[in-house]
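Hello, quick one for you while I still have it in my head. A protein chain has come my way and I'm curious about its shape. Can you walk me through what the tokens say about the fold? No rush at all, and the record is pasted right below.
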Amino acid sequence: MAKTTDGDEKTEAGQGAAAPVWTAQVLTLFPDMFPGPLGQSLAGTALGKGIWALETVDIRDFARNKHRVVDDTPAGGGPGMVMRPDILGAAIDGALAAQPESAAWPLIYLSARGRKVTQEMIGEIAEKPGATFICGRFEGVDERVLEARGVEEWCIGDFVLSGGEPAAIMVIDAVVRLLPGVIGDPATLEEESFADGLLEYPQYTRPQEWEGRRIPEVLMSGHHARIREWRRSESERVTRERRPDLWERHLAQRTDIRD
């Protein structure tokens, strides 16, 4: 059964206050991992205000055996266990049935073999009324359920986690901070890394000198045009040095615009 989290309290889904801007629905074997970090800082404050909502669905609730077993050995042999399609399929169907009739939420499985998540993808999800996230465990889930339910696979990086929950938390946090009313100054979002295809420029604050290192003079000049120019130049330098893949993409986009 889906549970809705509001701050530190869990109540039956469907009760209560005005509809949130965005809802994260999470299918997991470990619902107590949520909200976790999402209950703190900006995301936690927004959750408490009802700007967004968090629903967890315990996949084990859909197991029809005595011990609530959800996995079985891989077909063809090999190590580990695989989540069964009949159980996960039922959990997905139950989650979809709990959504508003007009909803068209993305259905996302956090997977090491998925499409690598970008800020553009996060922005697209933030414009939806919600999203459903499937957190795998073991060696993964039966491929048939992904095909049958039209599940997207997303990857947060080229490394492997013990389960999809931390990845789901990261994606949800990235979405929540884009929602209206979460960040005090919306202009902050316009100069972040990836906002225009580049990494963010270096930041400084007081004291003006620390351990022999001074804040760049241009930032203390009060000359706004020069500051903007310096920041743009630094964004390009940092991107070129640290993320050549982004830099090449940025150059290609500039060429396309000129053409």
Notes: The first strand starts at residue 3 and ends at 6. The chain has two domains: 3-176, 190-258.
